[in-house]
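hey team, just a heads up i'm posting the complex here instead of the shared drive bc the drive is being weird again. everything in one block, sequence lines first with there labels, then the predicted structure for the whole assembly after. its two chains so it's a bit long, scroll down
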Amino acid sequence: MTGDVTQLAVWILLAPLMGSILIGMIGLRGLRDRAHWLAILGVAAALVAAVMLFNDLRAIPNAERAAAFEKSHVVYDWFRADAPTGGRGWFPVEFRIDSLTSVMLLTVLSVSLLVIVYSVGYMRDHHGQGERGYERFFAFLALFVFSMCALVLAGNFLLLYLGWELVGLCSYLLIGFYYQKPSAAAAAKKAFLVNRVGDFGFGLGILLIYWRCGDLSYTYVFSDAGRAALDGYETIVALLLFCGAVGKSAQLPLHVWLPDAMEGPTPVSALIHAATMVTAGVYMVARCGAIFTASPTAMAVVAIIGGATALFAATIALTQFDMKRILAYSTISQLGYMFLGLGVHAPASAIFHLFTHAYFKALLFLGAGSVMHAMAGEIDIRRFGGLARGLKITAATFWIGGLALAGFPLFSGFWSKDEIIHAALNHAPILGGLALLTALLTAFYTFRMIFLAFHGPQRLPPGVEHAHESVAWMTVPLLLLSIGAIGAGGVAMASGDFNIHAWLGPVVAPHGEWSGAESHAGGEDLTLMIVSGALSIVGTIAAWYVYRRRPAIATVVPILLPGPHQLLYQKYYVDELYDALIVSPLRRLGRFCFGMDRYVINTLLWLITAVPRSIGFMLKETMQVGAIQGYAMGMAVGVLLIVWVVLAGS
Amino acid sequence: MGFLAQHILSVIIFFPIAAAIGLLLMPASDPRAIRRNAFLASLATLVFAIVATVYYVDQQRGPQGFHGLALAERCQWISDPLPYNLGGDRPAKLQVQYYVALDGISLPLLLLTALLTPLAIWSSFESIRERVREYYALLLLLHGAMLGVFCARDLLLFYVFFEFTLIPLYLIIGIWGGSQRRRAADMFFLYTLAGSVLTFAAVLYLGWQAFANVRDPADGARVLTFELERLYQLAAEGHLTPSVQSILFLALFAGFAIKVPLFPFHTWLPLAHTEAPTAGSAILAGVLLKLGTYGFLRLSLPMLPVASVTFAPWIAVLAIIGILYGALAAWVQTDIKKLVAYSSVSHLGFCLLGMFSLKMSGLTGSLLYMVNHGLSTGALFLLVGMIYDRYHTREMAELGGLARRMPVFAFFLIFFTLSSIGLPGLNGFIGEFLVLLGAFTSHSTAGGTPPGPLGVWYAVPAALGIVLGAIYMLHLCRAVLFGPLREPRGSQGHAADAHGTTLPADLTLRETALLAPLAACCLWLGVAPKPLFNVMQPPVQSQVLARMRPAMTATLAGNRPASPRVTDADPKSIRTRAVQANPSARTEGR
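-- predicted structure starts here --
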């Protein structure tokens, strides 16, 4: 049984990895136009294995689940820190396979598979030929799937860090996919570096855990003994780990990389920068619940950062014109919701929102990609409009995604977002209120985008004759994802193991850590459901009124309120601030260091060497005058001296 | 056992030297044969090194694992009854030995050297066109000397090999270097020589102390010996007072810190690297810098434990300054090679930080870091050389978007960048993690280990170095590989070099074959380094940590009344405590 599960986990990792490596080899052999099959096969095989894994886990009787889920599945020994005296010795490559893992695996793999299929259509030019770097793209995507699976399967903090850094690497490689564009190259670098800043804290947190516990395995750290060893350090450990989450999940103040990451091809934005990788921080905090819940301070920080980011990003999204950037800010905002949920002790709701968000956000991004494809790369919603007529499937699926994002009643986002708001209102009413306000803004900016892009008189950017629908490679994934966007909320209402709260229960709350506001599957507060449903409808109608009915308002507001509008449009000037406060001073410091080398240290050296040099010069002037007698005299004295020393010694 | 099994280390050391002499006897008119023979000789040395590894593993396999020395060979080198009456009433002997042996600390570095040199030689095939015979002979001489350093078990022999590495590299930089080669070579030579003169004084003093304290078990004669085991005994038996240890430590430090190079003794390095030919840079960064760190590990720590504990916080501070300073300076470079050179300053800071945490994790990490740095930085210098061979420039401003022109090159550059910035799954990560772990947990006493001299507040600024490391390396990648294609005028990607050979735009098969083994090693060490750990850790324990233990415990004893926090924060308090605490340890020793 256990052996089976471990083997399945290994297969889940190996299948995409092999796909990636094989593509790399085939790329050399000129079969590049068929590279996508290897990626699809690898990820599909992993998905099948993940489904089997889920079934295997379900087969475990309820009574044994807690024990089975806490087990560590060791594959082999990796390296070790101390001789066997301290700690457990080796850091193994080990897996943690439980319900949380399986939910993450199913989410990641199903979305990945659809995105990869979509990419087959997207990464081609008008003649159906693969773009430059076609095979590289699929190799990186498969590598990303491997890394993400490693992240969620990890059974200790080192392996988690491995997955964590590898997804960062894939993100770097894929953002910089169009590396000849300077903006793409810059965005890739920025993403990696901002993440590294977060990882600085994350890494220190891991070191601190090792220092206290002498082990990095979840099985030990989250056990009673491990929690006792961390006693008194929970807050600092949790906050350091959270630094990593802030970086990876693009929360305040490290959110700056995610909007720029839209320089990558759109499927990458859909997969990595919306549906999966950015949720790693949420997953990590949920996973480390044993540490986070022990510190009320850390929980409050998580909730506040989450709530603040949700609102902050939503306000920026109100003013942007680039479809992908609007979606990027909405991702930041939705991730904020998830952290808010974690911070108010509703981890299952946060993971539930992660799950629904993965489908509708991937759908929205892929829809934006479809628009971009039809508009010859144009993505600015001021430059086209009324596309619903030409792009029927894209528009319809985009509407579905938009409704889910806006939390329209009965769509998936509605259920998950509601649970979080519900928990927040119970726990911290102010944050709950902010979350409700954010919900209103979300509906407004989502439908602002939809009305501008898809409705009204048809406008096309120069050079585009007519809007044509994308190929089936792209529309079929859109349709499948919209099923998810509508129906994913069902997991909160299903019964048995298919109910996400019941399924995650033993993992996220084995010791009852997340006591308090844990949601009661589906049985929401009816008033709240009505309020939040109404808010999303109000937001939608407001967007319709401003952008369809009275477009003059949209042009007048920025003129009437130039200050606030500029502040939002320029994203609160955070980039400029960081540049002035951090990047430029560091760069100056670097120049200072180099200058030190050249002028200070080398001058000192010159001064030191001046002593022998001047002595030498003196000797040369006084002794080396060319008089043979002088030389002979010196030689004789020297020889005599040596003879005297030797004789005296013996 | 056959001849080879008994003399394998001597074969490893002297085969390249003999080959160098053989090369000089060849006619200079046939450069192709010369370089082929040089390459084959270095390759044969690699084979011998692998054979030695097999013997080593074979001999050391046992219930207690890889502990002691193996493949030892010793004979008297300079040995005489002293003619002078220095021994007082007893007879006195001079016993300088040729004594080589291998343990788990030397083995990884020996293999690294044996791997890097053939690659360095092979990398010079296209770029070296003048005085070919002398060039390869010098490289082989250097090879033998480096291998000798890692095998020597006699301090004087160690010193001879250590110094001998200077001359070939001095000539390589001075003759085949860039436009400022004379200045760079002079600076390299004088700088390192100035340090090692002081080191030599310490070596002589240690021998003298051995003479005063060591008796030949056979006839009770006083022995002037430099055998490492005997010298390790001096401190353990309390013959070296803390103040004498401190002076000796500083004298050894002078030589090793310059070699490493530790901030602020590093200014020779960027210049030497920029001016040296590619192979010289690769060897310099890959192996020669490790002679300094190896010296600290092999000599300073076990021989002068009290002084090592005393000075550890100061060295750690210099190492941390070096980490940050080197990284920041690397970031503002416009010359690719200088950037990589400054990155070495930063990396070797990590190496020393881990070492002076005096923890198993830190020491293992440090040793691994030496190997990692040799692999990744060696490869980076080779890569820089490949660019230079094509474009005759190393200015970032003149290059850009080369990923399009040279995809294979881009793959390797990104790969070794990732190795260098510690991506988990590649080798750099494990070394870096263990170094930081060592520094972080240095003062902890978990597992019954005595507390080390560093602590959390040493690890935190050092960890910033990881962020900065990513900054400058990705800056390099972006500048050279990404963005619109930019090449120096007139080159157009198929530059004909001064000798009329044309290189293809992307890497040749030879160049790919140069980098592939290094990349394979990086991957292997990142994914499955367990065998290496099995080899390294027992000797780190028995050769280094066990010898440090009394001094570290003494620090602990002096430390008890004060609050434990003081240990990490205040280096001065450790120093005084160590000094106060030691007399008791000394009397116990007697």
